[in-house]
Amino acid sequence: MRLLVAAAVSGWLVVALTSCGETASTNEVVKGKLDEETKLAIVDQYMEATHTQQEVLRGAQMNVDIEAKLPSLEKRGKLQALRKISKLGRITYKALGFSGDTTVKQEVIARYLAAESEARDFGTIAITPANYKFRYAGRLSQGGRTLQILDITPRKKMVGLFKGELWLDAETGMPVRESGQFVKTPSIFLKKIAFVRYYELRDGVSFPSHIESTVDTRIVGRAELEIYFTNFTREETLADDGVAVDASGAANDKAAANDKADASSTAAPSVPAENVP
Q1: What letter does residue 268 receive in the DSSP assignment?
Q2: Higher pLDDT residue, 9 or 240?
């Protein structure tokens, strides 16, 4: 049995295809109800944990391998890139190499990277009580850890919001897995979309691990992506006005200008987990 799941960024949403063997099918979920005070405590812990996560990821860089293909057209391509998050929270990419078909690069990979780099107002789609209703769904044990499962439902129908689940580490409140279906598509060229995102706990902090994704489009058919994140490091000298680089390796001066504008504001924008694929 296969499960359609997805990853999303502003303006470009990706549906993931992942094996159910990596989910609760190998672990029995203990369902139950909690009193309102206990449920709120779990949500509060999650909010504090994601704030810590965002702060840790600021000024970080990592290697990203993106493999994409268009099965119906028998086309594929692979991009290797360096992904940076400035101290202001701006996500930029520097292409290290590409091989494969240019259609895949332009219609799949470049769109994904551009959408993530250009996403600005993350607060409007962040997983917060202002945007979502939370319901306790149960718990399970996985890899020696206890995970709390929360069902989340958006309070409004807006691009970037989804209905689904959060799997949280019971000890730290950090996200381990996010999945669901988006309540609104950003374009008539995209059909029904859903997602899953996996994180790896390191020293009590969640780091993005991988995304296996597909998107059904009305133009080039189904696109499939596999995205892996490796070699996390902190770049203390990483510039806050870093220049975004698209899949072709060209500099995006607009990204630099946007970051400079951010620097003059009183509050730096946050980068939630959903924009760390």
Answers
A1: P
A2: 240
| Domain definitions of the chain by residue range | 2-275
Give the HSE-up count for residue 95: Cα atoms under 13 Å, Cβ half-sphere.
18
The tokens for 165 are 């689940």
- pLDDT value of residue 115: 60
Which residue reads 């020293």 in tokens? 203
Measured between alpha carbons, how far is 251 from 91 in angstroms, rounded to an integer? 13
Q: Take residue 76 and report the two structure tokens written for it.
A: 């594929």
State the Cα–Cα distance between residues 107 and 247, nearest whole angstrom: 11
**Three-state secondary structure of 216-251:** EECCCCEEEEEEEEEEEEECCCCCCCCCEECCCCCE
Task: Give this prediction's pTM.
Answer: 0.72
Residue recorded with tokens 């929360």: 150
CA distance 95 to 106: 13
Q: Which strand (E) or helix (H) includes residue 17?
A: strand 12-19
Domain 2-275 belongs in CATH node 2.60.40: no
